[in-house]
Inverse folding.
């Protein structure tokens, strides 16, 4: 990390990230060192993300989507390459980048309220009174429609509700970037559709930038401004990037017969199942 | 096939064994037949009964099922004990033990001299000693377990010493305690400390090392302080592991106290047991055994209750 920084800085300082280049991934390589040897997961990833943009990362399972997200989240450090967010290099996690985990990762011994409060407290405790912190926590839970379940523990609520709490926890931090790792992957189709619609509304309201990992083509097209399609690993990289020009607000019923929507959907499907089909394991 | 070339004798031997096995199998088969016939007959009865009686029946039956086997077990135990006293007249029987217990518990808190106190005082002084030794073990073992589970360096550092000291028999520590502490009572506490510290330490460490990566990722993403990580993530997660350790430790402490007191003298249930043996009050030995057993049981149940109360599931 140290050496790669010194090698690359001279080159990159010139390109100061503007609004257009809110987040940058510059020549990212990621090699995992395991007991069995090294594994080259990502190779030469380059990606610029605009402020307020919703970007989906799609690809077959195991290609390295979560790795990309964890790099942005600061949970991993790249083997080489640079990551910037809002003009600053990413070193470790930060409150401006909130993560919604696939398996919700709520702490089972805390109530929904306490789970969200933990995040609120961490970000705002120094600047605000207890009353304000409480208000923030309640507002976040209200935003995801969970006011009635604030005092419930995670094992007392449904999978969809847990994921809502996960989203509330992330949003309560008032992040600049929301990172979502297959946020609805574990939910049934109806609940998923519901939450997707709500996420769209929330993102419109908050206007924050989002990077979402998914393996669901419809989800990617419905929610995104751009879809990043990744090739299969090892040494996975970005295969193609698809612009989704559908106007917002989007309506899943209306889009079902929309030509553009179906064309985009077809594009992603062709990428995944034709050009980069994954051999059955 | 090489068995064919074996000496005749051994061949005979194997065939004999085989025969025995066959008989065994035949018996088992008979048992199976009998067992098999039982459920079918029950099924037939059940089928003819309407649903609601079955429900009422089953509640009553479950009550009986829960009561009868333990009661029966205790009866068998008392029966065997009585029979044993017929062949071993030196052994006090259930009746004489019970009568003697009534007398012993009539005045549990008398004090004649330092060596002659009521059973209540003896129990209390044993419990006090266990509380001291066990409490110190908890104060040392649990935080140390946290450190070992949290930091790999610490874990590797402590591993050889722990593996070396843990298997040592509790009473092996007694002379060392006497030597250094120069008194019986603190030596007993020392023995309890050193023998009951391990389960708490190890269970806590295992629990801490098992905190799921998901939760640690949450901690990282929320940028929680080390203190918050301990209080909001590690500690709640580790609590069930820790409580198991506490229970095991308490069991050991209570096991050890009797032996330590027997060797040491003073007051305490173990001392009392030994003293009564020397005074030829053999009923009292058995009373002491029951007292130790019952108190151990109560301590265990109490800790199970506490563990349930603090479990998040
Ligand atoms: N910490 C790690 N150590 C070793 N290999 C890893 C690690 N994390 C991920 N990998 C490997 O990197 C590849 C990409 O993983 P991941 O990003 O989780 O894929 P995806 O999210 O697209 O399903 C996989 O082959 C996985 O086995
Ligand atoms: Mg993944």
């Amino acid at each position: 990390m140290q050496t790669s920084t010194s090698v690359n800085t001279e080159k990159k300082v010139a390109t100061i990230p503007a609004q257009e280049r809110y987040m940058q991934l510059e020549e990212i390589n990621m090699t995992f060192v395991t007991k069995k040897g090294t594994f080259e997961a990502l190779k030469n990833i380059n990606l610029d993300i605009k402020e307020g943009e919703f970007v989906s990362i799609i690809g077959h399972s195991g290609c390295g989507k979560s790795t990309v997200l964890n790099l942005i989240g600061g949970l991993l450090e790249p083997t080489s390459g640079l990551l910037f967010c809002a003009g600053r290099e990413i070193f470790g996690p930060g409150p401006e980048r909130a993560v919604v985990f696939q398996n919700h990762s709520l702490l089972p011994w805390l109530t929904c309220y306490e789970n969200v409060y933990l995040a609120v407290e961490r970000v705002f405790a120094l600047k605000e009174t207890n009353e304000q912190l409480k208000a923030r926590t309640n507002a976040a839970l209200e935003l995801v429609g969970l006011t009635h379940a604030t005092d419930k523990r995670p094992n007392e609520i449904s999978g969809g509700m847990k994921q809502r709490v996960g989203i509330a926890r992330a949003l309560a931090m008032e992040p600049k970037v929301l990172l979502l790792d297959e946020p609805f992957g574990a939910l049934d189709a109806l609940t998923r559709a519901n939450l997707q619609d709500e996420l769209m509304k929330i993102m419109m309201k908050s206007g924050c930038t989002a990077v979402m990992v998914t393996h669901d083509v419809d989800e990617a097209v419905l929610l995104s401004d751009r879809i990043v399609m990744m090739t299969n690993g090892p040494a996975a990289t970005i295969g193609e990037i698809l612009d989704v020009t559908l106007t917002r607000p989007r309506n899943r019923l209306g889009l079902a017969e929309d030509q553009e929507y179906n064309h985009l959907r077809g594009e992603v499907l062709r990428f995944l199942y034709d050009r980069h089909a994954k051999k059955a394991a | 096939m090489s068995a064919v070339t074996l000496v005749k004798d051994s061949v005979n031997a194997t065939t004999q064994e085989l025969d025995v096995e066959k008989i065994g199998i035949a018996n088992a088969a008979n048992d199976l037949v009998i067992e098999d016939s039982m459920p079918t007959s029950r099924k037939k009865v059940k089928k003819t009964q309407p649903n609601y009686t079955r429900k009422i029946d089953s509640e009553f039956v479950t009550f009986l099922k829960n009561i009868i086997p333990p009661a029966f077990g205790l009866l068998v135990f008392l029966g065997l004990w009585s029979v044993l006293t017929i062949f071993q007249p030196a052994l006090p029987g259930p009746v004489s033990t019970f009568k003697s217990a009534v007398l012993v518990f009539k005045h549990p808190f008398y004090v004649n001299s330092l060596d002659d106190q009521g059973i209540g005082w003896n129990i209390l002084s044993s419990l006090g000693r266990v509380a001291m030794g066990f409490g110190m073990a908890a104060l040392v073992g649990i935080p140390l377990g946290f450190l070992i589970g949290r930091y790999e360096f610490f874990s590797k550092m402590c591993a050889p010493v722990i593996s070396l000291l843990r298997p040592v028999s509790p009473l092996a520590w007694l002379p060392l305690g006497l030597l250094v502490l120069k008194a019986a009572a603190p030596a007993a506490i020392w023995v309890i400390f050193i023998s009951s510290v391990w389960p708490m330490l190890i269970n806590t460490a295992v629990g801490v090392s098992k905190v799921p990566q998901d939760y640690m990722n949450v901690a990282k993403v929320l940028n929680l302080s080390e203190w918050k990580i301990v209080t909001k993530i590690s500690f709640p997660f580790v609590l069930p592991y820790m409580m198991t350790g506490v229970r095991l430790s308490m069991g050991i402490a209570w096991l050890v106290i009797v032996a330590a007191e027997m060797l040491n003298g003073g007051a305490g249930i173990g001392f009392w047991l030994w003293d009564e043996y020397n005074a030829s009050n053999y009923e009292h030995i058995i009373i002491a055994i029951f007292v130790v057993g019952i108190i151990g049981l109560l301590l265990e149940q109490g800790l199970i209750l506490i563990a349930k109360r603090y479990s998040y599931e």
